[in-house]
Give the backbone structure.
Amino acid sequence: MIQKRLCRILIMVTCSLILMTASFNKSAAADSSKMTFPEEHWQETKPEAQGIDSTKLNTAISYLKDNSGSDGVKELVIIRNGCMIWKGTDIDKMHGVWSLTKSFTSTVLGLLIDDGKAKLDTLAKDHVPSMAEFYPDITLRHFTTMTSGYYAVGDEPHGSYKHGPSSTPFKPAPTPLFKPPGSRYAYWDSAMNQFANVLTRIADEPIEELFKKRIADPIGMDRAKWDWGDFGKIDGIIVNGGSGNNNKHIFISARELARFGHLFLNRGKWKDKQLISASWVETATKSHVPASTPLETLSGADGRGVYGFNWWVNGINSNGKRNWPGAPLGTYAASGYNNNDMFIVPEWNMVIVRLGLDQSERAITNAIYSTFLEKVGQAITEQ
């Protein structure tokens, strides 16, 4: 009798968890029934047409402007339901976006996995033989989660720049930053550049070309408003910067970057075409680094608990706090130096891009972005 009661309780609990999970997944997914896609140009509407109170939205935007450097909200774009509801005065300005590049790099990994050419556990040494002697166990998963421990010749700190500044990132140093791979977290730029080199070998072409054919062209990114810096030919093929350092980053305008964000908002689908698998988008934008992971001293940032596959997520960090407590749980971002950031908020059907070159004047912190996003949320009148 007791066993039967326990079974009933377990069944009820299991069903409740399933319903809760289904409810969370539904709330965290973009509502495709309301979604539109830009043709040559974004459709522009008033905020009210997309269920947003313009007065409250302007309050949020004013807050962000007041807490930015001189670029303010000139390169700010807000997209809801596929419509542009707010734009700054300089959203066609094209410039580098530093580490925001990393989210482009991991997207190429997603394409190669979709094609069956790679797996997360593919060993780097199988495609770049120079990795075999000192880094035989590093996988693509280690690279994209910043847990590889890769250290390049020339990675010694350059002044305040300590997290992988090497101008020769494709030359493995004999001593790893740490080992074994996966045992620590280190936000490391030369590791990301070597990651791009490995992806280039797997693709057998520059990753910019693969991205252009499979993503940028199909979603209508203006080729005159984006470019991907490179290191020139390495072993016969141009290698684009995987990290965004040494001026080898993505150069792009806020208007064009919003298209990339809109693709991810729609889980890799553009109109009726699945350009990159929904499973990749879902997996890449979840945390893959436990908050309990030890942090390497020289790490350029702390992604423990909040780092996916080169995307920042709204998880619980190593201090027990959420990245952006004012934002929905499903929020994630691509982020780079100089206050270059793109937020995707599936619960709101929204993409927000803020680009600039003003971090030396004032850094826009996670706390500032959290309050800004909270104020944006307060402007929503219709879910």
Summary: Residues 2-28 form the longest helix (27 residues).
